[in-house]
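Anyone up for a design puzzle?
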């Protein structure tokens, strides 16, 4: 497999470190298995269309936009691969962009809901911990109702397309009303998944246990119900772009 995964746990916080080394045949097969689900949540579309959507978006001179989208895609890939249920679309409803209120909303196998935020940077200017910190702050802003866009209405619109009968819709509708009223939510009642991806072309060695310890130290005293943080090292963006062209 083209990635190596390590898991760590401390109290109510779980950290997964993923080193994405290459897009080998097994990784291509895994992407093929989930790419349509990630992009469209509609099996009537095909892999070719999903590849084209992502290729059109990452085929840009805007490196931050490209890296942000690829980082987010691989988080969706991992979460789908561990049988978490995707309650959002990778494709935005309003514009040709994967950006939305939350980078992801998922249910685990116990039907608990998780809110995902993805941040990325290069090894020259970022650490996994700094990106996770940025993602947590972004989530906190959304729960504080201080963002410029209503994340709950966006989440509602995504889920309504995926499953118009999902009981979570009522929750999102209520939370959207709270946002309109400017009411902050108690973030300690929600499950958060702040994620950080670092791009590295130099085969830098990262000690996953040290990364986990650093991230756990940051989360000491932070507010959340449960936390599931994913740290990724992306070394195969060019190989991923080559895969999209096939």
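Challenge accepted. My sequence:
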């Amino acid at each position: 497999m083209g990635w190596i995964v390590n898991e760590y746990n401390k109290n109510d916080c779980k950290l997964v470190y993923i080193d994405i080394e290459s897009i080998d045949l097994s990784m291509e097969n895994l992407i093929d298995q989930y790419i349509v689900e990630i992009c469209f949540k509609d099996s009537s579309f095909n892999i070719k269309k999903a590849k084209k959507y992502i290729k059109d978006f990452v085929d840009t001179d805007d490196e931050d936009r490209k890296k942000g989208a690829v980082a987010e895609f691989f988080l969706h890939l991992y979460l789908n691969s561990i049988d978490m249920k995707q309650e959002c679309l990778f494709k935005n409803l309003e514009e040709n962009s994967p950006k939305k209120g939350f980078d992801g909303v998922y249910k685990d196998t116990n039907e608990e809901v998780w809110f995902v935020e993805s941040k990325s940077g290069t090894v020259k200017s970022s650490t996994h911990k700094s990106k996770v910190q940025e993602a947590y702050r972004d989530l906190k802003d959304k729960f504080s109702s201080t963002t410029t866009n209503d994340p709950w209405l966006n989440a509602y619109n995504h889920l309504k397309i995926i499953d118009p009968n999902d009981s979570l819709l009522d929750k999102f509708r209520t939370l959207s009303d709270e946002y309109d009223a400017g009411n902050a939510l108690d973030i300690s009642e929600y499950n958060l998944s702040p994620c950080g991806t670092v791009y590295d072309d130099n085969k830098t060695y990262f000690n996953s246990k040290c990364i986990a310890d650093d991230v756990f130290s940051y989360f000491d005293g932070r507010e959340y119900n449960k936390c599931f943080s994913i740290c990724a090292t992306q070394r195969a963006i060019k190989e991923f772009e080559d895969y999209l062209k096939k």
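A detail worth pointing out: The chain has one domain: 3-245.
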